[in-house]
């Protein structure tokens, strides 16, 4: 059987792999039943649904003819590196790294760093727009997580807030 859409075929396999991993991981928890769900019920159902979506997409890639076979393009290394790096920086700045003596910088600094580093992944970079976005995200996150949900984690750097 010939693959008629490479993009759909490989994305379908990816969906199936992630779905199977989630469903398999969910079996380590109590599953329960529909009326009395355990902590593994929701990830199991999501894993099964994701696997079914992957099966459908993969089947469609083998059956539905596309014009050029939709080949897979080259990897976009720059955006991938900046997005993953931004998330790593966010985690490090939020909680700090005690082993190397880096104190927690808090939510606000971490969000600004996340926004500015991830904005470098795009083709265009406008510092004013990124600063406005970072401010909106920082204020929104503060209101959502600290004020409304009352989560306990550092908001400001530890050397400022004490």
From TrEMBL:
<protein>
    <submittedName>
        <fullName>Tripartite tricarboxylate transporter TctB family protein</fullName>
    </submittedName>
</protein>
<feature type="transmembrane region" description="Helical">
    <location>
        <begin position="100"/>
        <end position="118"/>
    </location>
</feature>
<keyword id="KW-0472">Membrane</keyword>
<dbReference type="InterPro" id="IPR009936">
    <property type="entry name" value="DUF1468"/>
</dbReference>
<feature type="transmembrane region" description="Helical">
    <location>
        <begin position="130"/>
        <end position="149"/>
    </location>
</feature>
<feature type="transmembrane region" description="Helical">
    <location>
        <begin position="75"/>
        <end position="94"/>
    </location>
</feature>
<feature type="transmembrane region" description="Helical">
    <location>
        <begin position="41"/>
        <end position="63"/>
    </location>
</feature>
<feature type="domain" description="DUF1468">
    <location>
        <begin position="10"/>
        <end position="154"/>
    </location>
</feature>
<dbReference type="Pfam" id="PF07331">
    <property type="entry name" value="TctB"/>
</dbReference>
<feature type="transmembrane region" description="Helical">
    <location>
        <begin position="12"/>
        <end position="29"/>
    </location>
</feature>
<keyword id="KW-0812">Transmembrane</keyword>
<keyword id="KW-1133">Transmembrane helix</keyword>
């Amino acid at each position: 059987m010939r693959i008629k859409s490479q993009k759909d075929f490989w994305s379908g396999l990816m969906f199936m792999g992630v779905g199977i991993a989630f469903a398999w991981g969910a079996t380590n928890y109590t599953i329960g039943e529909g009326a009395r769900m355990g902590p593994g019920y929701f990830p199991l159902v999501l894993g099964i649904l994701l696997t079914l979506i992957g099966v459908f997409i993969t089947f469609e890639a083998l059956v539905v003819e596309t014009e050029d076979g939709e080949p897979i393009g080259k990897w976009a290394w720059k955006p991938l590196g900046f997005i993953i790096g931004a998330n790593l920086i966010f985690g490090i700045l939020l909680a700090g790294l005690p082993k190397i003596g880096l104190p927690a910088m808090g939510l606000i600094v971490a969000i600004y760093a996340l926004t500015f580093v991830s904005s470098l992944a795009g083709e265009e970079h406008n510092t004013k727009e990124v600063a406005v976005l970072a401010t909106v995200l920082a204020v929104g996150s503060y209101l959502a997580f600290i004020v409304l949900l009352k989560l306990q984690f550092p908001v400001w750097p530890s050397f400022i807030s004490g």
